[in-house]
Amino acid sequence: MIVFFFFFFFSFCFFFFFNDTATTEIYTLSLHDALPISIAFLFTSQVQAGGQVEVLHWWTSGGEAKAVKALKEEFEANGGKWIDSPVAGGGGDTAMTALRVRVMAGNPPTAVQLKGPSIKEWAAEGLLGNLNVVAKAENWDAILPPLLKDVVTYEGDYVGVPVNIHRVDWIWANPKVLAKVGANMPTTWDEFNAVADKLQAAGITPLAHGGQPWQDATVFEVVALGIGGPDFFQKALIDLDDAALRGPTMVKVFDQMRRMRGYVDPNFPGRDWNLATAMVMKGQAAFQIMGDWAKGEFLAAGQVPGQDFLCAAAPGGGYLLNSDSFVMFDVKGDENLQGQRLLAKLILGENFQKTFNLYKGSIPARLGVPMDEFDMCAKKSSADLTATIKAGTLRPSMAHEMAVSRTFRGAIMDVVTAHFNSDMSSQEAVKRLADAVATAR
Questions:
Q1: What is the SS3 assignment for 289?
Q2: Nearest to residue 13, comparing CAs of 25, 26, 31, 1?
Q3: Which residues have C-beta within 8 Å of that of residue 49, sequence separation ≥ 6?
Q4: pLDDT tens, residue by residue, 328-354
Q5: Is 2 exposed, middle or buried (0-12, 13-18, 19+ CB in 10 A)?
Q6: How many angstroms from the chain centroid is the CA of residue 239?
Q7: C-alpha distances in Å from residue 94, one per residue of 99, 165, 436
Q8: Which of 40, 114, 156, 299 is the most exposed place for a label (fewest CB within 10 A)?
Q9: Is the Cβ–Cβ distance between 360 and 293 less than 8 Å?
Q10: pTM above 0.70, yes or no
């Protein structure tokens, strides 16, 4: 770039000294106009390279760690300095607590993993930086699905950049364990219960689960989609309609949750989700209900989909979407701003979208990324995403902060976890759920 600049400069100098007056005036004018453009072009190129970012995230398990390492390596290969600030546990809840402490202290990280309504809430506080310059240069309007564009914009401005698309409503299984009782992957909840009963009778743990509120909520919303369908899910867990929350369908959802509680092993309290995935890998349990970040764990362990593990959409006919994004907090210093712009550019680049999501188990947030290298589960996820968008049955995940604010999510999780860990009746759980949401309004 520097060579180009000096070539441009000396070319004009040549014409200035060796051409007639009229020509000299023309080229002098051209130099006057072109010089700032050349300098601006040079400056822009420098801004997009280098800089530094401190990245706060909760990607700490096997597949997740490999995925974030890919981003770090690409950032550093482009001249950036990466400061890693991982916060393990809680499905992001612990990280959000750490973030609030940092912001209150006036020392926010440069870039933060964030999602759903939380992005707009932070933006409304005036704490997020503006990424419109990068978005325009990289044509984000054309390469992002409308749903994700809405997630990462606030009042028309880009304040975040999506990394991926996760499907939440998956059932993962160990085929060798299922073969022990002559079972196939269930396609309805009645079939799931029948297979689980067989497994239990054979002394096998049917469901690998970690007793953490966000994991309880994950199973709950997958069951809610399966029992009530996408329309019920919309009314109850997105619109928070009181009649849907108190109705008979929600009673059936809690009835199924009671059965699910009976299918887990006694040591489930406090277990991290990736340890539950490991139980399925090792044949210690048959099933896990978890988003496709679980697939990243299988792949990181060298397992092959369709052979070493099975994937199937949970019953329900919809698609529960979760998406990770990074937001750039409003920070000072050219080095930090350069780092933010470089990171944002790389995240939606086609190369990173492919590499990252192959590790993470998710599918690209960027439209048009070839799926040839992705596994059968990812290809199914991509095909189902397209189909559910057309059918109007795509829904944002409540449990993973895509559908409602953290206040409502917390109210719902409290009731779900209390029910899962007690002998509370379904009718009592429904009443408490609706009352908790009403109180949170």
A1: strand
A2: 31
A3: 78, 79, 80, 338, 342
A4: 999 999 999 999 999 999 999 999 999
A5: exposed
A6: 22
A7: 9, 22, 23
A8: 156
A9: yes
A10: yes
